[in-house]
């Protein structure tokens, strides 16, 4: 079988599995799990075969005309270089892990058949984006992912949080997709084609007439899809969906699509240095802002959500300085350890019966209850904090090295200003990342208080997946050398300067957080002892206790995957984040009020305009419509009274009319004669 045929089957198999799952979900429930796992697993295996055959060598390029348009043609085409081959492997492997994990995690969910089918469709759409060589076909996969995320984030649609989160995700990403679509058409108009090879050829020949405008329009769509400032606000709220969906969205689909798109068309963006500077500013603000916000979150999934936003900022930063090899390397590395983090968080939620880190910090022995999740989450958090020799260290250092080269003038691909923005933002984010990773680990696994609930051993389908993902989280960074051919042969090894700076920043963040946690733990012990000595249960402010109780029980996912809700332990939480951020904490906890800003700038004016339109429609337009109808009815009633059916009345009216006409004629004649 040819490589092209194998590549066609990669996105096709999950699509067929999704269709079959939707058709057979109710009539043949026994086939749901095989239809969820086997097509996705088959796609992953075929993606590996395609990557091996491609070998980082010549790009696989095949196309056939899909439909004539009369102007710019639309082709069904494949364009598979080393980057595409590796990203497809990541998508296939992570999607398979998510499907296997979901069979246990959502085993009692009555909507599991539709959930599994949507995950397969989601996977197929991302694989279509990865392999497609035509921008219009790529756009199909891009938009299908958007609608799949809407349904999957809103899986628990009975709750207001899930409904609002799904709608917000859909609308914010569509807000970016509008300029994105305009940018695609503008790009095709300048290049005369939607095919990626022809577009890249046009760029190389200097044939783009509006490079800055096109790049900025496309960047708006990327900001929405990959949750970059200022369109990142949907991603933390999307945690209302099931945890395996979060793993899929954050690690291998949806948010990865925007970064991959820029890497695919990097020469288009590089044609405008202004666009690269804008991209660097966006990346730096996103990295630092998300790191600060992550430290202030209580929900374990929201911590990881802000972490994803920051890591995507690293990738966009690498692209802003012109190194797509470093960006895709970090995309692959991040995909492994972030999938592990979210799936591990699912096990923690399953065991603790809560999403709240504050509640977990008042539980004792949670790590012993879930040893598999404890060890694998520790590995993933070390990779996230870029501790050598874990995968995150090598991929993050590749980004910092690229930024350093640009900042010091050793690269002519991007302006030095972009390099300094990414380098400084990246180093500061390294400190913040280590801080919130350490905080999460300490609060989740080093709690003190009542014994953690016992629910028995976690299913093998969940723990086995964690250990599988732990392998690349440990060793993928060491594979940078052997797979360099897939990265255009570029060097991805760290340098001494960036290694010292990056690792030093991470060490400072981790040690500072640990010291603050010890102090917060001591204060929590004293406060609990004081409350016990006073013989009261009000040592903790009522608002804190209520918030903790709500966090433990309000999430529908908790009710879905746990056996019961444990009693929320009394006492203050040992949270080092408050001391770390100081007065910034309350602002960071709500995302620096960006949602409130959008509410005042956009939501309220739109609602006010809608109210005005509703008033005009009801009170003005409807009044005219009702008046026209009423006038017609009155005229009809008057005319109806004249229709009596009496012939004498008709003759009398006719005679009276004739007399009136005669008199009028005589009067007019006299008037004319007098004049």
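^ Assign residues to that structure.
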């Amino acid at each position: 079988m040819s490589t092209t045929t194998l590549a066609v089957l990669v996105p096709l198999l999950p699509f067929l599995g999704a269709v079959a799952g939707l058709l057979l979900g109710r009539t043949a429930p026994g086939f749901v799990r095989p239809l969820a796992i086997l097509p996705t697993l088959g796609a992953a295996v075929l993606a590996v075969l395609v990557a091996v055959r491609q070998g980082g060598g010549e790009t696989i390029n095949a196309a056939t005309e899909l439909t004539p348009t009369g102007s710019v043609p639309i082709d069904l085409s494949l364009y598979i270089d080393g980057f595409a081959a590796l990203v497809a492997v990541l998508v296939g492997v992570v999607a398979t892990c998510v499907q296997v994990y979901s069979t246990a995690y959502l085993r009692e969910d009555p909507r599991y058949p539709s959930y599994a089918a949507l995950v397969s469709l989601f996977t197929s759409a991302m694989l279509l984006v990865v392999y497609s060589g035509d921008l219009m076909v790529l756009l199909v996969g891009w938009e299908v992912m958007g609608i799949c995320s809407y349904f999957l984030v809103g899986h628990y649609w009975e709750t207001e949080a899930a409904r609002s989160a799904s709608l917000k995700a859909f609308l914010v990403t569509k807000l970016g997709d509008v300029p994105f679509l305009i940018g695609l058409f503008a790009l095709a108009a300048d290049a005369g084609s939607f095919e990626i090879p022809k577009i890249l050829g046009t760029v190389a020949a200097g044939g783009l007439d509006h490079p800055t405008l096109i790049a900025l329009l496309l960047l708006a769509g990327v900001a929405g899809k990959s949750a970059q400032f200022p369109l990142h606000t949907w991603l933390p709220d999307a945690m209302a969906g099931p945890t395996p969906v979060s793993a899929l969205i954050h690690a291998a689909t949806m948010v990865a699509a925007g970064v991959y798109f820029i890497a695919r068309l990097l020469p288009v963006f590089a044609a405008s240095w202004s666009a690269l500077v804008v991209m660097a500013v966006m990346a730096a603000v996103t990295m630092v802002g998300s790191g600060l916000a992550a430290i202030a979150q209580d929900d374990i999934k929201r911590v990881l959500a802000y972490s994803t936003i920051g890591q995507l900022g690293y990738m966009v930063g690498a692209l802003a300085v012109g190194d797509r090899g470093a960006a895709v390397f970090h995309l692959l590395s991040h995909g492994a350890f972030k999938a592990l983090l979210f799936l591990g968080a699912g096990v923690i939620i399953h065991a603790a019966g809560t999403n709240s880190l504050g509640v977990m910090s008042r539980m004792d022995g949670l790590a012993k209850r879930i040893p598999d999740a404890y060890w694998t989450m520790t590995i993933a958090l070390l990779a996230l904090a870029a501790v050598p020799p874990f995968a995150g260290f090598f991929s993050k250092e590749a980004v910092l090295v690229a930024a350093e080269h640009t900042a010091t003038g050793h690269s002519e691909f991007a302006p030095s200003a972009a390099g300094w923005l990414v380098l400084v933002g990246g180093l500061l984010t390294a400190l913040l990342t280590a801080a919130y990773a350490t905080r999460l680990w300490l609060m989740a696994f080093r709690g003190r208080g009542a014994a953690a609930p016992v629910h028995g051993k976690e299913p093998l389908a969940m723990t086995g997946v964690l250990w599988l993902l732990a392998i690349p989280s440990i060793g993928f960074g060491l594979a940078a050398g052997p797979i360099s051919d897939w990265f255009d042969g570029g060097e991805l090894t760290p340098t001494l300067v960036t290694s010292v700076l990056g690792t030093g920043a991470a060490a400072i963040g981790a040690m500072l957080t640990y010291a603050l946690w010890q102090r917060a733990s001591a204060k929590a012990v004293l406060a609990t002892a004081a409350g016990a000595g006073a013989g009261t249960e009000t040592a903790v402010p009522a608002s804190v206790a209520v918030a903790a109780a709500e966090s433990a029980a309000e999430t529908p996912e908790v009710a879905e995957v746990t056996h019961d809700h444990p009693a929320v332990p009394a006492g203050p939480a040992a949270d080092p984040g408050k001391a770390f951020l100081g007065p910034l904490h309350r602002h960071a906890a709500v995302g620096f009020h960006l949602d409130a800003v959008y509410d005042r700038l956009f939501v309220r004016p739109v609602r006010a305009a809608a109210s005005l339109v509703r008033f005009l429609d009801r009170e003005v337009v409807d009044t005219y419509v009702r008046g026209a109808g009423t006038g017609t009815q009155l005229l009809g009633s008057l005319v109806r009274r004249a229709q009596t059916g009496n012939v004498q009345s008709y003759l009398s009216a006719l005679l009276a009319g004739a007399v009136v006409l005669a008199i009028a004629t005589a009067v007019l004649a006299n008037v004319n004669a007098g004049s």
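The two ends are 107 Å apart (CA to CA).
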